[in-house]
User: Which sequence fits this backbone?
């Protein structure tokens, strides 16, 4: 189709030079695609470089400790991606003897790999004609063809996948998929795209109807819940503190954090003191309590807003579970905790 030819021509003239575009090795393509899920290229690039340096092969990644993988992932968020990445690497090495699945259908069997990632790997590495559909693709197609079906509805998912599959260049599926993703990322941007230099502006329905900012359509998600976190930064006279591993399932599973007291609202020092007094780590022991951040830190996640305060608890000694403050940087922590550790300057 003319659409695919124009798109691929644009891509050949405008694509960014990125390290994963210099290879068709499935390990590197897979790694880049997982890192770039819900992450912009400029943020994900340093992580890609770090991962390929520390884990140059799927065998290296598979034999790594999960804690090392999570530590390297620290700051990217959506930590389930890192856990799934590690689990998939172990599966590839143990069950597939290090051989990557070479088809869309088999790639879907990898933990953490869905339609988009499987399509990207299958087309780029194995030239399979299967179209990618991500946020960038939704935006390009909805604007050009004037499609107002919500992209986060089951109908929208099927409709846009079918449209992308119809448009894909059968002879150059890898170029087409990379081109449409790149076009959405750098040209048909979410806000204020430069439509005057767009090669599709004559036929773009959104541009010609002046509805660029109205597409794509997305059903509003449920309002984020507010949670109130009080992290207890215990510090003993002999330079010890406490980090606890989050064992329960959730976004921070297997990451470390300071002991936490969750409340129903923001609390003051007089309300928190009695709760700390009964804490297992220092029960029956004298302590001094001070608030580190007077301004509440609001850490926004997709489904909840964490209203966070860090409380410094000075004690003579800690009963157990303590670590040296000199070792605190060795633990994989959520970015919220990591930022505090850097600011506190242990």
Assistant:
């Amino acid at each position: 189709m003319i659409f695919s030819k124009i798109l691929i021509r644009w891509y050949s003239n405008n694509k960014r030079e990125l390290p994963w575009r210099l290879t068709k090795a499935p390990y590197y393509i897979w790694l880049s695609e997982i890192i770039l899920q819900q992450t912009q290229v400029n943020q994900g690039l340093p992580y890609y470089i770090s991962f390929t340096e520390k884990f140059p092969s799927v065998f290296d990644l598979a034999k790594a400790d999960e804690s090392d993988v999570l530590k390297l992932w620290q700051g990217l968020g959506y930590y389930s991606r890192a856990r799934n990445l590690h689990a998939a690497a172990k599966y590839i090495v143990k069950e597939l003897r290090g051989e990557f699945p070479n088809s869309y259908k088999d790639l879907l069997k990898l933990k953490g790999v869905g339609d988009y990632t499987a399509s990207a790997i299958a087309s780029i590495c194995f030239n399979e004609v299967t179209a990618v559909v991500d946020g960038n693709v939704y935006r390009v197609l909805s604007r050009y063809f004037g499609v107002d079906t919500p992209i986060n509805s089951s109908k929208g998912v099927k409709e846009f996948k079918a449209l992308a599959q119809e448009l894909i260049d059968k002879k150059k599926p890898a170029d087409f998929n990379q081109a449409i993703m790149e076009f959405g990322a750098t040209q048909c941007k979410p806000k204020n795209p430069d439509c005057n230099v767009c090669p599709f502006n004559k036929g773009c329905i959104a541009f010609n109807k002046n509805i660029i900012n109205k597409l794509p359509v997305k059903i509003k998600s449920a309002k984020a819940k507010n949670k109130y976190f009080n992290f207890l930064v215990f510090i003993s006279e002999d330079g010890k503190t406490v980090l606890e591993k989050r064992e329960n399932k959730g976004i921070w599973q297997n990451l470390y954090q300071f002991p936490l007291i969750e409340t129903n609202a923001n609390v003051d020092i007089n309300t928190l003191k009695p709760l700390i007094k009964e804490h297992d780590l220092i029960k029956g022991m004298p302590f001094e309590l001070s608030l580190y951040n007077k301004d509440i830190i609001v850490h926004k996640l997709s489904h909840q807003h964490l209203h966070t305060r860090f409380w410094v608890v000075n004690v003579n000694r800690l009963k157990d579970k303590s670590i040296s403050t000199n070792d605190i940087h060795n633990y994989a922590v959520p970015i919220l905790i990591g930022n505090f550790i850097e600011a506190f300057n242990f």
